[in-house]
Amino acid sequence: xxxxxxxxxxxxxxxxxxxxxxxxxxxxxxxxxxxxxxxxxxxxxxxxxxxxxxxxxxxxxxxxxxxxxxxxxxxxxxxxxxxxxxxxxxxxxxxxx
Length: 97
Description:
alpha+beta; GMP Synthetase, Chain A, domain 3; 2 helices
């Protein structure tokens, strides 16, 4: 098993790679940060502009990288939810309260 320092450095690089991808595809000023929840394999995107949505290309990338859900947490306190396993949540949705 890798040492803790190596695993932490790998995590930093993975977070940077994912952030750079989202900035390229969604716009650099579209969100402020990302996080994740190991319990449901979800990605959390924080500080999203109100009209930010994930294209099918971005969703396919996230699902391919092992996430099964994604929450966009908008600056106006709304959320947009995406889920790989639920077809009704695979395309851009109106924000939910």
